[in-house]
Amino acid sequence: MSQATMTHGTAASAATAPRDTHQQHPIKLYLVVWGWLFVLSTASYLVDYFHLQGYLRWSLILIFMILKAGLIVAVFMHMAWERLTLIYAILVPPILVLVFVGIMFFESEYTLFTRIFTGAGS
Amino acid sequence: MAEHIEMAQPGLAQAHPTMPRLAGWRGFFADWASDQRAFKNVSWMKAMMWIFLLSDTFIFSCFLLSYMTVRSSTTVPWPNPSEVFSLHIGGQNIPLILIAIMTFILISSSGTMAMAVNYGYRRDRTKTALLMIATALFGATFVGMQAFEWTKLIVEGVRPWGNPWGAPQFGSSFFMITGFHGTHVTFGVIFLLIIARKVLRGDFDHERRGFFTSRKGNYEIVEVMGLYWHFVDLVWVFIFAFFYLW
User: What is the pTM of this model?
Assistant: First the structure.
């Protein structure tokens, strides 16, 4: 993989960094990603501008969010060219946060129920 | 003794045939201090930055989670972010416009940062430093706009314990989440300027030793700095989606 990324790099000296850490891609790649991030941000802004509501709104927000996050992590942070060990070590733990999300959502629904039921708190 | 080691760690036993297995805490420290690397060929700078960013991810996850919890458990309607963050421009209210501009500014800063990393590896000092300074300027603009936003909301009566439009939890969530993010951006700007200065001075070409670590640096520090900066942008993507748009 590292050799593949090295081949289309320009006159870069390999002495500056250890192998595999050396990332060399054409500038055009970053400009294209930059453009896409602008498009996706505009799209998510338009979701609010046109007052979309309900599941359509939430699913569009999530899709645009995930696409943007993916582009930033994969290309800007070079995760797409890293070793699998590093990718898994960094990307799997945040996914486990979803379990925490589930727990806290359940908890908050219970809190809401007690607030409505007892009329205490807000 | 030697068989013992070989059974536990075959690879290592060959590299260090005489490495003894020490008892208790001495063994614990000896193991952690030995030559064991999970991220092979990944430089320690990059691995450490990624691990730091992972821990930072958990911090921001906790903030967003607590925001979700207070928002979905309150009986009072949540203030509409679309109206709260609208600006009055040219005789009409434009919803969320300031936040949208801040988003574009932060994305642009990520773009210039990515290019700075690229020019850094090409050893182009001037372009690297200029792109990093441009990134820092975008970051400073972002923080400035955030200060404007905070001022506007505080003048309108938003406090961590209440606000004129609805659920009092809105203020505490807002100040906590955007405040922490703004702090991250501020520190990023400071370190961008420090490293841009080092690049411009040629520290990484002449292998000048750092003032704090006394170690020789190389252009990889630009990429590590970039990882932090892109992370700040990444966090904003989630804040924008969950706090401002939801």
Answer: 0.83
